[in-house]
Design the sequence.
C-alpha cells in the first residue's frame, strides 16, 4: 500500500528527540524521505537508523538551527540527497524562562534565535530551491503541492507568565506563517502553524526542582515543569491529560495530507481541548 507522502521530501528541525522525532517517524512511515536534524549528531543518526531499519529513507543534518550557516546546510542536504523539497517543519526549540525583570538579554535573544530567526532563515534559504523546482514543474505541466508547517504554542496565543521571550517568539512565528502563506501561494505552497499545549516530552516531564538540565548551544538550561503546575494543567485540559509526541505529530501530519491542499495561513491548536492558559 502506498503511503500518503510517498516520494515527498520532508525536512524536520529538532527531530532527534521528542515531538520532532515522532514527526520524522510519522512522515517516513507514510513514504516520505526525511532530513533529520538535532543539535547533536548521535540522536539525529539514531532516528535515521530507526527509520532505515523500518524500511524508510532518511539522512541526518545535525547542528544548531541558530547558527548562521545552518539554513543553507539544511536546505542543501535535501537538494543534494533527494533533489527536492516538499515539506518543511520548523519544530526545533526549547524554553528558558524568567519573569521579565529577571530575564537577561542573552535569554531573550537565545529564544528569539531558535524559535523565530531560525525558521526565517530556513524559509529564506528554501525559496530559491523551491522557485527553481516550481519553474521546472510548470514547464513540464506537473506542479506539486508543497507544505510548510511552523510550530507555535498556546503561549504565543494567550501569553504565559515567566515566558515573555518564548511567547513573543511563538506569536512571531504565527505572523511569519500568515505572511509566507501570502508570498508562497503562487508556488502552490501552503503555510500553516500548529500551536501546542501541554505535550509530554523530556523538556516538560522532568521535575522543575530535580536539577535536570539540557545542554543547548553551550549552555546548561534547566528544564522541567513544577509537578503541581503539571497537575493543574492536566486538570484544566478537557481530555484530562497531556498529549503524547505521537499525537502532536498527528496535528502536523494533518496539514500535509492531500486533503489539506486548500488550507493555508491557519493555526491549529493541538491542546486536548484547552482554550486558554
Sequence:
Amino acid at each position: 500500500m502506498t503511503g500518503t507522502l510517498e516520494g515527498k521530501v520532508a525536512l524536520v528541525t529538532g527531530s532527534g528527540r521528542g515531538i520532532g522525532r515522532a514527526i520524522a517517524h510519522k512522515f517516513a512511515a507514510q513514504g516520505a524521505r526525511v532530513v533529520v536534524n538535532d543539535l547533536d549528531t548521535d540522536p539525529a543518526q539514531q532516528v535515521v537508523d530507526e527509520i532505515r531499519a523500518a524500511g524508510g529513507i532518511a539522512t541526518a543534518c545535525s547542528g544548531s538551527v541558530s547558527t548562521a550557516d545552518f539554513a543553507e546546510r539544511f536546505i542543501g542536504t535535501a537538494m543534494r540527497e533527494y533533489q527536492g523539497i516538499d515539506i518543511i517543519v520548523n519544530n526545533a526549540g526549547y524554553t528558558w524562562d524568567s519573569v521579565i525583570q529577571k530575564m537577561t538579554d542573552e535569554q531573550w535573544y537565545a529564544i528569539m534565535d531558535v524559535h523565530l530567526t531560525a525558521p526565517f532563515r530556513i524559509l529564506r534559504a528554501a525559496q530559491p530551491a523551491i522557485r527553481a523546482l516550481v519553474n521546472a514543474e510548470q514547464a513540464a505541466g506537473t506542479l506539486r503541492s508543497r507544505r510548510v508547517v511552523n510550530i507555535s504554542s498556546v503561549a504565543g496565543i494567550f501569553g504565559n507568565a515567566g515566558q515573555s521571550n518564548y511567547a513573543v517568539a511563538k506569536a512571531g512565528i504565527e505572523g511569519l506563517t500568515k505572511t509566507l502563506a501570502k508570498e508562497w501561494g503562487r508556488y502552490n505552497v501552503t503555510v500553516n502553524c500548529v500551536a501546542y499545549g501541554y505535550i509530554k516530552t523530556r523538556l516538560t516531564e522532568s521535575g522543575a526542582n530535580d536539577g535536570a538540565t539540557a545542554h543547548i548551544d553551550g549552555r546548561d538550561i534547566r528544564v522541567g515543569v513544577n509537578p503541581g503546575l503539571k497537575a493543574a494543567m492536566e486538570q484544566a485540559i478537557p481530555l484530562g491529560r497531556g498529549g503524547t509526541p505521537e499525537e502532536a505529530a498527528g496535528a502536523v501530519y494533518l496539514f500535509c495530507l492531500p486533503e489539506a491542499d486548500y488550507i493555508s495561513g491557519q493555526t491549529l491548536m493541538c491542546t486536548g481541548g484547552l482554550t486558554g492558559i
